[in-house]
């Protein structure tokens, strides 16, 4: 009898050891993709496209949740604290993944240590937009007007810490323009302010700006990337309008909480890279003005994050930029 129980115990132990050695199936339930901005902006539009295609490849729904606020910190902190099991992902941009660590004090996550990079999804240049009431035909005109008008000019951004905010900081630093920053909670509200004439200008992503430029409701003075945008080929880069060091684009990356199991990380990265390789997805992203990345690997995304953390820290330190 003793031998019988011993054999049974060994068999049961072997079963549990074998079960633990087997890789956990992934995914077995819906995956949540957190977007730290309100619906309707470029991050939301691109994220939903990727979520839809990723769901097809994973065989499980990928549910988008918009958790906006605090310059994208609310959504980023939520994901940083989530279980590292592959069921909570963050589709974010330069602020959460590079800028905010230098801009905000008491941040509850670190972009380089709290997240597992999965895929670089591309970058989107901003454009310098002005309301038609501002009679500027060039960057030089705009700078001159800002210096002669009492109180200067106000510029609308999608929120403190984003590239639409810091592009204005850099512009003022390089040109001496007199600008007042007016932050909003997202790109949509910022454009509404500009369209209504409540603010004078904005550094807005090309995707959101394009319809208003085409309709003539807003004027464009240039793009913030070093090279022209393929959807606005006639808009000269600011770098070629007397601002040689001006090169500001927002990059998009998908990350997971740090500590993701290697097998899950590989599965997600592989499927996401396959999604970005689909001809129809590339067509839709290019139509939105997105510049596709040189590489889509997790390692490339980490390199970009590390580079931009240093780049934005320098600008914030030199200009004293603060959340508003």
Structural summary, described in words:
Strands 1, 2, 3, 4, 5, 6, 7, 8 and 9 form a nine-stranded mixed beta sheet that branches. The termini are far apart. This protein has helices spanning 2-21, 42-58, 73-80, 94-103, 139-148, 163-175, 187-195, 206-214, 262-277, 279-287, 298-319; strands at 31-35, 62-66, 88-93, 115-130, 153-157, 179-183, 201-205, 219-223, 249-257. The chain folds into two domains: 31-124 and 250-319, Bordetella uptake gene, domain 1 (D-Maltodextrin-Binding Protein, domain 2, 3-Layer(aba) Sandwich); 125-240, D-Maltodextrin-Binding Protein, domain 2, CATH 3.40.190.10. With 324 residues, the protein is an alpha/beta fold. The model is unreliable at 4-12 and 15-22 (pLDDT under 50). The chain has eleven helices and nine strands.
How many structural domains in the coordinates?
2
**Structural class, please?**
alpha/beta
* Oligomer type: single chain
Give the distance, in angstroms, between the N- and C-terminal Cα atoms.
76 Å
Query: Which percent range fits the helix content?
Result: 40-55%
**In this structure, how is the largest beta sheet organized?**
9 strands, mixed
Number of strands: 9
The CATH class of the largest domain is identified as Alpha Beta
Q: Under CATH, the topology of the largest domain is which?
A: D-Maltodextrin-Binding Protein, domain 2
SS summary, helix count: 11
Low-confidence runs (pLDDT<50, min 5 residues)?
A: 4-12, 15-22
Q: Roughly how many Å is the radius of gyration?
A: 23 Å
So, the CATH homologous superfamily of the largest domain? Bordetella uptake gene, domain 1
- Average pLDDT value? 89
Element order, helices and strands? Answer: HEHEHEHEHEHEHEHEEHHH
Q: Report the principal-axis shape.
A: globular
Please tell me the CATH architecture of the largest domain by its name.
3-Layer(aba) Sandwich
Question: How big a fraction of the residues is strand?
Answer: 15-25%
């Amino acid at each position: 009898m003793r031998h019988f129980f011993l054999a049974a115990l060994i068999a049961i132990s072997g079963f549990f050891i074998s079960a633990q050695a087997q890789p956990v199936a992934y995914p077995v339930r819906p995956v949540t993709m957190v977007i730290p901005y309100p619906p309707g902006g470029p991050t939301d539009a691109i994220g939903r496209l990727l979520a839809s295609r990723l769901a097809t490849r994973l065989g499980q729904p990928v549910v988008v949740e918009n958790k906006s606020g605090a310059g994208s910190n609310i959504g980023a902190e939520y994901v940083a604290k989530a279980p590292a099991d592959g069921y909570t992902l963050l589709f974010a941009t330069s602020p959460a993944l590079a800028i905010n660590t230098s801009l905000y004090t008491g941040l509850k996550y670190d972009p380089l240590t709290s997240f597992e990079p999965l895929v670089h999804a591309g970058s989107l240049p901003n454009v310098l937009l002005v309301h038609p009431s501002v009679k500027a035909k060039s960057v030089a005109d705009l700078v001159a007007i800002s210096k002669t008008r009492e109180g200067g000019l106000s510029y609308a951004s999608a929120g403190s810490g984003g590239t639409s905010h810091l592009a204005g900081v850099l512009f003022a630093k390089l040109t001496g323009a007199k600008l007042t920053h007016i932050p909003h909670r997202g790109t949509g509200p910022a454009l509404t302010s500009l369209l209504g004439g409540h603010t004078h200008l904005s550094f807005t992503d090309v995707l959101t700006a394009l319809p208003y430029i085409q309709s003539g409701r807003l004027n464009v003075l240039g793009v913030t990337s070093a090279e022209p945008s393929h959807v606005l080929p006639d808009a000269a880069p600011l770098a070629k309008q007397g601002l040689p060091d001006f090169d500001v684009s927002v990059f998009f990356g998908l990350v997971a909480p740090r500590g993701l199991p290697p097998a899950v990380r590989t599965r997600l990265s592989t499927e996401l890279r396959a999604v970005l390789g689909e001809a129809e997805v590339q067509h839709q992203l290019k139509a939105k003005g997105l510049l596709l990345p040189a590489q889509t690997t997790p390692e490339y995304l980490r390199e970009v994050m590390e580079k931009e953390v240093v780049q934005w820290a320098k600008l914030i330190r030199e200009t004293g930029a603060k959340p508003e």
